[in-house]
Amino acid sequence: MSESSQIFIAKSTIKAADKEHRRKLNFNIGKYNAVVPQGKEQFLDLALAREKAKNIKWKAIENLGEQLENFDSAITKRGTTVIWADDAQQALEAVGKICREKNCKSVVKSKSMVTEEIHLNDYLEKLGIISVETDLGEYIQQLDGEAPYHIVTPAMHKSKEDVAKLFARKLGTDPKLTPEELTLVARNILREKYATAEVGITGANFIIADIGGIAITENEGNARLSCSMPKTHIVIVGIEKIIPSIYDLALFWPLLATYGTGQRVTVYNTIITGPKQDGETDGPDEMFVILLDNGRTNLLANEKLRESLYCIRCGACLNTCPIYKNIGGHAYGATYSGPIGSVITPHLKGMEEWKHLSNASSLCGSCTDVCAVKINLHELLLENRHEAVEEGYSNFTERTAWKLWQQSMLHRRLMNFGNAKIKNQLVNKILKGWKEHRSELEFPKKSFNQLWRQKFGDR
Fold first, then answer.
1. Is the per-residue pLDDT at 459 higher than 70?
2. Among residues 98, 205, 226, 411, which one has the fewest Cβ atoms lying within 10 Å of its Cβ?
3. Measured between alpha carbons, how far is 389 from 193 in angstroms, rounded to an integer?
4. At what angle do helices 179-196 and 160-171 cross, to 10 degrees?
5. 8-state DSSP, 428
6. Closest by CA position to 218, among listed 234, 232, 231, 202
């Protein structure tokens, strides 16, 4: 059993028994579930919209190299420097080099899962650079020393009382402040950071190939400030975020908003095509785009798992997953949690160490049903399990148990072998793993086959 697997089991066991944690999580997911149906009403044919979005992403991913080259060529013409990073270390080194050249002392950063993936804040701290999260949820998590809990809602596991106590402890505010007052406190603090930071760092929701631009979706405006007020803007984005055309945003923006937060469209939607041009008064003097691979080409090379790269990070699969709703985001121990995280993490970080995540699923298929771009998530989880076995990452006991089960299922005499008492002892006393999180299994005294023969004979 890998170290990551042991940590996962320990954390998930604790969280599954934490009723207060579950109450907060279910309350916040309940708010999400209440508004998403309203957002879906904007689509005349929702199934068709999802199918079209999937086909657009299929086209983009199947021609990924060409699409990225088109993006590179177009945005470079307007003065942006594009950096191709094979892994997290190359991306971090690129950021470090830029920051050193700019004599950077502080960075403002908008919400970005890919920067969490490469542990950017930890790297900048080692360089002596202050990195400030400007998204309110991310800012709350940073104050508390925690990683994001959810792809879209970083502090989903916290109540307003939790946030008030955190602000009181870290910022010296009144512990009885309302959510509105807490937001104003954060706003006043962060506004000063924008004005003094030498570098602003953002992610991107989409990379637009035909015009050479990045599209950012947000509700607070912090990404706009992070990319426009500092003199240098750095974008770090996974290569899978590519879409072929600016016209595709007419579908993807409302689809992401609806499935992400239940809105028809988010408050701020921005397309950035380069640094400040001649004659323009707003924007950064320099812009850099770091295109990150970091294992994504492993998924691209895998024909069965490739469609996981279609994901637009709406978080809908997390909100519907019975596993996520019981153990929460931090138990996964990886940047991307929930069903999509369980699919892609073994390929981004190594199957041997992370194969356990694909087993942390009921395979109920709810994630597939709600996916905005119709990724067959539950089938991909099953494929991961298959690949783990094919690559030799199953132990002797597991292989033996399944071999015995297979033989039993193929031979009626083996299925009927032994009475109920023997079977009960085998499962409940000898194979103790069954009872670890379940009540005792009680086998019927006669199998269905035996009852059938008793009633109808051999016909």
1. no
2. 411
3. 50
4. 50
5. I
6. 202
Architecture per CATH, 45-294: 3-Layer(aba) Sandwich (3.40)
Contact between 290 and 201 (Cβ < 8 Å): no
The dihedral region occupied by 366, where left means phi > 0, alpha psi between -120 and 50, and beta the remainder, is alpha
Locus of tokens 């068709």: 48
Among residues 389, 413, 410, which one has the least CA distance to residue 400?
389
Phi and psi dihedrals of 48, rounded to 5? -65, -40
Residue 443: which of 416, 425, 420, 426 has the closest Cα?
Answer: 420
Closest to 260 in 3D by CA, of 204, 320, 315, 188: 315
Q: pLDDT tens for residues 234-259?
A: 999 999 999 999 999 999 999 999 99
Angle between helices 136-143 and 160-171 (to 10 degrees): 60
pLDDT tens digits, residue range 118-160?
Answer: 999 999 999 999 999 999 999 999 999 999 999 999 999 999 9
Residues ≥6 apart with Cβ < 8 Å to 274: 75, 78, 79, 80, 212, 287
Contact 257, 265 (CB under 8 A): yes
Positions of CATH 3.40.50.10420 in the chain: 45-294
